[in-house]
Amino acid sequence: MKRLLTLALSALFILVGGMRAAHAADTIGTVDYDKLVRSYNKAQLFSDDMKTKEADLEKTRAEYVKQIREAKTKQPNNPVAVDQLQKSLEDKLSTKVNEYRSLQESQAQALEKEMNNAIETVAKGKNLSVILAKQTVFVGGTDITNDVLSRLNAGTATTTTK
What we know:
The protein is mainly α.
């Protein structure tokens, strides 16, 4: 009788543990963050804007190099003037690069915050207590990527995805 009671209690513990594990698996969600970045309209606009700004920086740098070369050619006997020009142009370029990086960082942080807020909102709506990166989950979990994308892209201008 004692053995039968032990066996029944063991089966009950296993059953309850299995139910807890199944319930825990039901409360785990996954999100494909890479897909969010590729498909979120604002993220695409940000990426395009940053590419334009990078091209502008490169154009500015090339123009400054051209100006320095021309100054060296036109004023070969005046290295001080050439050095002053070079320093002035390097300072201007450095200022532009720092402004670009600051803008890039602040906009990237704002986008990340928007995406994380949307993930949290969708997770709460689906009663998911944990959200993991989809790339780290082999099996299981509820994928909320498309729901998050729908929430993010609602009311934003569309752009072509690459």
